[in-house]
Amino acid sequence: MKPGSVWFEVVRECPETGARAGLLHTPHGTIETPVFMPVGTQGSVKGIGQQALEGELGVRILLANTYHLFLRPGHEVVARLGGLHGFLGWPRALLTDSGGFQVFSLSALRKIDDDGVVFRSHLDGAEHRLTPESALDVQEALGSDIRMVLDECTEYPATREHARRSMERTVRWARRGLERAGRDSGAVFPIVQGSMFADLRRECAERLVDLGAGGYAIGGLSVGESRSVSLEMVEATQDILPRHRPRYCMGVGMLEELGEYVARGVDMMDCVLPTRNARNGYLFTRRGPLIIKQQRYREDPRPIDERCPCATCARYSRAYLRHLFLSGEILFAALATHHNLFTYLDRMRRIRETIMVGGLPNLLRSFALLREAEE
Q1: Is 97 noted as a catalytic residue in this protein?
Q2: Shared domain check, 302 and 197
Q3: pLDDT, tens digit, 9 for 90 and up, residues 118-151
Q4: Structural domain containing residue 75
Q5: How far, in Å, CA of 5 to CA of 151, rounded?
Q6: Which element (helix H / strand E) includes 247?
Q7: Do residues 236 and 362 share a domain?
Q8: Nearest-CA neighbor of 208 among 226, 225, 189?
Q9: How confident is residue 373, by pLDDT bands cut at 50, 70 and 90?
Q10: Active-site residue, from 97, 151, 184, 305
Q11: What's the total number of domains in the chain?
């Protein structure tokens, strides 16, 4: 990847909050930010194909997971088949994470030292090792546009002493990862850690900024803490991370939370909730969640959301979708996933449009009032 091939510009800022509207330029297209990135963990967004993602949904960037693709089918296989873009049949931008969170959450046995992490695969128990250097080598083979440095994701709750050791290791790994990336470091983001200690978060951010990366991720959230604490940790680094670099908050959040993170200066987000919840019959609407299995929808002719213009709402009733869900039909997952992703992406588009013209605090209040009216 040529140096400078990933770069970011802020085009508008909200004067009342820290929200920004920007443009993230990559070798596979320009992404309007703030942006929500659908999660294609194993090279596939569950329940929906690339044609729909690229078409009606208008997705400009997908996330794929280094840990899973490293284990299966293997990064060498993906590289021989044209990298992730060729392997997936996806012409637009791709972001890969480092695999650190999956080592933390999925590996039955792991051993972390200053050099890296040894872990056993959740698939077959085989032992593997990832280092800051090899994690980026794997991502280079995958051919993603934006890559993450290996970090240590601290469990929650954690003692302050453990959180500091973990943060220090993450900073050391970030330095090694950016040195490995060399001239391609503009496409590589280190990850802010520090558990739920705001001062450690700030220190970590300051030390990562000194490394001069092309962007910065905020990790170690959505691991069991309250949402208010999660937002506090994002706020802690808001005035430290550079204005002219993209900020990516990893693994958040619920639909009603998107605007709250954007208002704290976040430009990029991802989360499995819209797809995972869709498969479980939990549908997102402007007025709050709709649990499709409930008896009251048995003969309901209305769409999921009467104001939603997505393809699912344009054609199918709550009664039919409930029938599909209770019957275990695969079609339900596809239709529900399409709707949930549309709702998330549409919410983020509305937020960006409002930042461009002004009035974001009023929009966020209107979202809250809609939910309160439903409740």
Answers
A1: yes
A2: no
A3: 988 889 989 999 999 999 999 999 999 999 999 9
A4: 7-271
A5: 24
A6: strand 247-249
A7: no
A8: 189
A9: low
A10: 97
A11: 2
